[in-house]
Amino acid sequence: MEFDVERHARDFMEAAKKFQLYFLGLQREDQPTKAEMLRKEIATVEEELKMKSEIIKNQERLIQGWRKDLSDQLVKHNTELERV
Question: pTM of the prediction?
Answer without folding.
Answer: 0.51
